[in-house]
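FIELD: query
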Amino acid sequence: MNKSIMIVGVGGQGTLLASRILGSALLSKGYDVKVSEVHGMSQRGGSVVTYVKYGEKVYSPVVGEGEADLILAFEQLEAARWLSCLKPEGKVIVNTQKIDPMSVVIGDCEYPEGVLDAVKATGAAVVELDALPLAVEAGSPKATNVVLIGAMAKNTDIDKEIWIDAVKACVPEKFLEMNLKAFELGYNQ
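FIELD: result
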């Protein structure tokens, strides 16, 4: 049986590295894996989504409405934006960080209040964490993505060592120690 994961966020948050780590871990388990990255205005803080499907045989990476087993959201509004793709029994792991979309930055509107409460009100299983301070503790705010991968890893049936090997395979050596610490901090939440 195939499974579907979506990684959603804002350009510049490291969602692409996160999807590479996820893909590496899944391939190590022997799954057929398909990944599709969709960029909005990613260079300007726009929405970015990565679809990942895996299983015995996968033909398309695209995840439709009500098909995602798990959504890993790097930002609150992105969790809400993609929530319709979650299966009724699916799970959302969401970073509590708020990043103003361009419409807020230019003053056209305000960041909505109660986004996480609205996501929870749908009945979705929600795991929330503030990944930014954990990333700073690991050594850099840029490690937020690997903190979130750690939190996601804890919510899968893939052995922790496989995830650690995937981080080692995808992160450059000079950033490896920091990212392994970030992974551990996320995993232990």
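FIELD: remark
The radius of gyration is 16 Å.
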